[in-house]
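S1.2 Input.
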Amino acid sequence: MDIKSYYERQISLSEWFENSGYKSTTEFRVEDNEKRERLRYLKKEIGVPFDEPVQFNAIDLVNNTKKFEKYYQKHSEEYCALRLIPKDPELPKLRMRGLIIRKAYDWFKEQEISPSLRKTLMVYNLYRQQKRNFRRNYSRNAQPTDTRAF
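S1.3 Output.
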């Protein structure tokens, strides 16, 4: 198996369900598209940790708003994963991983999408999140918060 070509077109779980003939693909996509909002709520209410994204509207990137420009200037050389989440669950979620934010932004500009049809753009600062998790889990003074299995 050619691993490079495999990862160039690795399909999402939603796409896999759709290709398999799964009857509730639309419902699955709705849930998949909203899972970060549910995780954000659980973090706020009971402290569930998750890879909380930096979130922008797609139109913020198209218009290069002050909010996005400020973030871009500070983090453009950091690695990220990027997701374009559609408002319409019939549309696919577009994603890219493993590039620095500057190159991910170039990838975003190459996509032939209507920003008004994309609910949000999420930029995950992978390195910062991993560094934060490492410090929290391995610092001398860190105490385990909860070791119970789910």
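S1.4 Remarks. Residues 25-46 form the longest helix (22 residues).
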